[in-house]
Amino acid sequence: MSKKSASARGRPKTLDRDQILQTALMAYWEQGPANVSINDICHLTGASKPGVYREFESDDGLKRSVLEQYRGLAIQPVIDILERDQPTLETLDALIGFMTQERAPLGLPSGCLFVMMRAQSHHFGPSTREKLTMLRSDLLGHYETWIERSKSRGEFADIPTEIAALFMDAQHGGAMRMQREGVPNTTIARVLEISLKTPIVGAGPARA
């Protein structure tokens, strides 16, 4: 092998990007994203700090990449539910079920990393804040599309669509904060049934 070809290949890449992202995601989710540094991630993964910086450029870049990873794990499923062609009440039941699923069997922390990162956004760099804004705008857009579709079937209250989307988003955030505080999922589900079904479709919770 010539020196030229060996030089072109460069130093072998040993950093496992997926491992870094998964470790950072879980650490942020469990401990709070503002409480975890790149040094902490290096300690947990055995990666070198220069290697992490080469891969993600900065702590800001790492947090933005984690958000992209989290989108597929916990935001896309919400969008998938909203895009189903089904009655409004079934969609609400599916959303409530997803928000209040038991996390322990899945090996996931309580609460929502997206909600936490939005609350702590002043701690993050511009790239992460931009990503948070983009994800929230996208999610609100999907809520609005679903609301308009429900209205066209006469299954949604006469509430301005933009306000209704913000209301849905607020209920999700409140539910995730309650879960983080240790409120039982069965209780959170009841709260969501009352807060979502009654004003939106005029249907209170069926359970006694």
List descriptors:
single chain; 208 residues; mainly alpha; Tetracycline Repressor, domain 2; 10 helices; elongated
In short:
This protein is mainly alpha-helical.
Written description of the protein model:
The protein is mostly helical and 208 residues long. Helices cover 70% and strands 0% of the residues. The protein has a domain at 59-200: Tetracycline Repressor, domain 2. It has helices spanning 3-9, 17-31, 38-45, 49-56, 59-82, 88-99, 113-119, 126-152, 161-180, 185-201.
**CATH fold-level name of one domain:** Tetracycline Repressor, domain 2
The Cα radius of gyration reads 21 Å
| Name given to the CATH homologous superfamily of one domain | Tetracycline Repressor, domain 2
Q: What's the number of extended β-strand segments?
A: 0
The percentage helix is 55-70%
Tally the helices: what do you get?
A: 10
| Beta-strand content bin | under 5%
CATH class of one domain: Mainly Alpha
Question: What is the CATH architecture term of one domain?
Answer: Orthogonal Bundle
Task: Tell me, rounded to a whole number, the average pLDDT.
Answer: 90
Which structural class is indicated by helix and strand composition?
Answer: mainly alpha
Distance between the termini: 77 Å
**Order of SSEs:** HHHHHHHHHH
| Principal-axis shape | elongated
Low-confidence stretches: 1-12, 204-208
The main sheet comes to: none
